[in-house]
Model the fold of this input.
Amino acid sequence: MSKPIEITDDSFEAEVLQSDTPVIVDFWATWCGPCKMIAPILEEIASEYGDKVKVTKLDVDSNNQTAGKYNIMSIPSILIFQNGEVVDQIVGAVPKAQLTDRLQKVLA
Done:
């Protein structure tokens, strides 16, 4: 079973920008209630999509350089990257169906 990969400012480029597959980046923090609500959904997506999508998590408190670069003002913020570029952004805890719909458009 796949789980979201914890990434940092240091590993962001290798894990996200240089990835051959689309990458979901969950910008979150330990104190954020909605972030905790969406975490199990992201684990399900990581499991269900396997090698088609890489699911990652970036703690904004520990990695404010990357959060700042992408103008993350509210968390959870979920950015979907493809070929090193942001192709979609979702702010707030959303239902799984909304996440998978947006992901399917990227994978299509």
The mean pLDDT is 95. The radius of gyration is 12 Å.
